[in-house]
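Bug report (template v2)

What were you trying to do?
Predict the complex of my protein with coenzyme A.

What happened?
Run completed; filing so the output is reviewed.

Input:
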Amino acid sequence: MGDVSPTIRRLSIPEFTINTPVLVDIYIEAMEYDKAIRDTRVEVWRRNSQNPGFTAVAALMDDQVVGIAYGFNGSPNHWWQHQLRRGLRQQGGPTEEEIQLIQNYFEVAEVHVQPGFQGHGIGRKMMHELLKDNASGHAILSTPEVDGEANPAFSLYRSLGFTDFLRHFKFDGDQRDFAVLITPLPLGER
Ligand SMILES: CC(C)(COP(=O)(O)OP(=O)(O)OC[C@H]1O[C@@H](n2cnc3c(N)ncnc32)[C@H](O)[C@@H]1OP(=O)(O)O)[C@@H](O)C(=O)NCCC(=O)NCCS
């Protein structure tokens, strides 16, 4: 595959909720998860679309969805922020700066490109569209730790300016280590 020119565009909440099963399939394939999680994830993603600040971006090739990215405003009522606060306490925080940061951020919840379409700039374009004109001061996301940060996700986030917020963090209910990364908004140009 040479240059690919997908259409990158925002999805309205109805478009997102109608198409959630197809979008979750991209996530399951990209992350190599078991298909058995499909229905629960569809439910969670649809619930996420009700959060304030919800923004979703899809990548389309010939009307086929090949990528999805979405997020929403962070909130002290969200499980995820409770987890971040626990992580900060574990490392001796939170500092004043960290307290400020987690009062005004956009959570990038998911970014996935269908295998076969990865490595052609689609993830980068979706991230730019997702975070464009965002009113939050920062964007925060998590990604599974990998040796030497040697995967497309880490490379993409680093090149967009994301730096360490928490490392080797274990979310409740997940055995894996995660990196939680943060960047000021707007994203730097590249
Ligand atoms: C992570 C992901 C969303 C990135 O999207 P993508 O379209 O493949 O990435 P892009 O082509 O936009 O590349 C962005 C950067 O990632 C890096 N990258 C891309 N493919 C790579 C590869 N195969 N190996 C290492 N780095 C790679 C490069 O640094 C690239 O920067 P460049 O444009 O300057 O070359 C996508 O690869 C994916 O869905 N992966 C599996 C699921 C996943 O890990 N999701 C994120 C979980 S937090």
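What did the reviewer find?
The two ends are 24 Å apart (CA to CA). Strands lie at 7-11, 55-61, 64-73, 105-113, 138-144, 163-169, 178-184.
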